[in-house]
């Protein structure tokens, strides 16, 4: 085991210990700031910035998967913080005087962008990832407004999601290389949070199937239910394979962006599918908040809405094989 692998193992043990000492299932991220700070997770981007980028992202991905097994909200907050901090570090911004959030901007037209972001800390800067503009990232350090009256959301209820309105000018845009890197980081870490939620849903289903009895037998012995659980595990394994490829590959930054989008699309689809299957395994109990699986469905759907998404992934992948859609029009 290398020194870096040993340090990662130690960090993951600390994360698991945090869950044991203070369970944070369904916890809000704000209540976890102290424990997260004590373990160093709030500063993970800065602490790992000097090591190889592939190792740093692997650390973040594994940590967020581990956290996601306990709380999708806390995992999402940490993903946002990591992406925004690392993007600022690439630009040479002093993190000691700046807190920031990463946010998905859904509007490609005009300068004003409205979006949602985790507002666990008051932001000093906002990073806007625009998936409709091939993932170009814009930075606003002064001209943005936090909107307090936003629609109530059921998924990621503990992430303190709030509205952001920001102005993004052409000179706010990051260089392409940095923009692609930040957007790839975002998709990879949202995918990691989604897989954490999927793992939690699978674990809850397996535990329930082993203990719930019908007709004198544990329902885990029924062939139909065993097939459902096996399919859940298969979906997670396939998604984790794509995620590992996106994290560990060393291609051109644009290629890495494509790999990350594909991994995010697959992981978020898997999380939703696994969570819905978990509800099926639990039967009527899956619909009540007494059991965690209903919350897993809400979190999985919210995470899917906040990654680049299936349509963006398909567009990027199609462009790799067919060229841009504009090129196709010219060819005709």
Layout of secondary structure:
Elements: H1 3-21, H2 33-38, H3 44-47, H4 53-68, H5 72-91, E1 100-105, E2 112-118, E3 125-130, E4 136-140, E5 144-147, E6 161-167, H6 176-211, E7 213-214, E8 217-218, H7 223-248, H8 253-282, H9 293-306, H10 309-322, H11 325-331
Parallel strand pairs: 1-3
Antiparallel strand pairs: 1-2, 2-6, 3-4, 5-6, 7-8
Helix pairs in contact: 1-4, 4-5, 4-6, 5-6, 6-7, 6-8, 6-9, 7-8, 8-9, 8-10
The CATH class of the domain at 177-327 is Mainly Alpha
Q: How many β-strands, per DSSP? A: 8
Strand order of the largest sheet: 4-3-1-2-6-5
As a percent range, the share of strand residues is: 5-15%
| The CATH architecture of the domain at 177-327 | Up-down Bundle
Measured distance between first and last alpha carbons: 56 Å
CATH H level, superfamily name of the domain at 177-327: Butyryl-CoA Dehydrogenase, subunit A, domain 3
SS-based structural class?
alpha+beta
CATH topology of the domain at 177-327: Butyryl-CoA Dehydrogenase, subunit A, domain 3
Query: What overall form do the CA principal axes indicate?
Result: globular
Rg from Cα: 20 Å
- Residues in helix, %: 55-70%
Mean pLDDT level: 83
């Amino acid at each position: 085991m290398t020194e870096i692998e040993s340090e990662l193992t130690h960090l993951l043990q600390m994360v698991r210990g945090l869950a044991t000492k203070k369970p944070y299932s369904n916890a809000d991220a704000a209540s976890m700031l102290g424990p997260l700070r004590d373990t160093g997770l709030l500063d993970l981007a800065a602490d790992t910035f000097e090591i190889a980028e592939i190792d740093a992202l692997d650390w973040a991905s594994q940590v967020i998967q581990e956290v996601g097994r306990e709380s999708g909200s806390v995992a999402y907050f940490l993903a946002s913080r990591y992406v925004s901090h690392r993007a600022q570090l690439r630009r040479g911004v002093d993190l000691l005087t700046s807190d920031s959030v990463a946010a998905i901007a859904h509007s490609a037209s005009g300068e004003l962008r409205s979006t949602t972001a985790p507002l666990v800390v008051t932001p000093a800067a906002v990073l806007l990832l625009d998936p409709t503009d091939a993932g170009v990232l814009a930075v606003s350090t002064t001209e943005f407004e936090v909107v307090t009256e936003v629609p109530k959301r059921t998924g990621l209820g503990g992430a303190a999601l709030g509205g952001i309105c920001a102005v993004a000018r052409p000179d706010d845009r990051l260089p392409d290389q940095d923009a692609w890197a930040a957007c790839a980081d975002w998709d990879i870490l949202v995918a990691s949070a989604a897989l954490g939620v999927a793992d939690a849903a699978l674990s809850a289903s397996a535990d329930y199937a082993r203990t719930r009895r019908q007709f004198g037998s544990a329902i885990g012995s029924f062939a139909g239910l065993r097939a459902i659980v096996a399919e859940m595990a298969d979906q997670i394994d396939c998604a984790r394979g794509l995620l590992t490829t996106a994290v560990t590959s060393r291609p051109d930054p644009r290629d890495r962006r494509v790999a990350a989008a594909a991994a995010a699309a697959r992981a978020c689809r898997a999380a939703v599918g696994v969570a819905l299957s978990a509800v099926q395994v639990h039967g009527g109990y899956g619909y009540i908040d007494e059991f965690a699986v209903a919350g897993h469905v809400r979190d999985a759907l919210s995470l899917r809405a906040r990654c680049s998404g299936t349509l963006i992934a398909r567009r990027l992948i199609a462009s790799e094989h067919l060229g841009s859609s504009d090129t196709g029009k010219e060819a005709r």
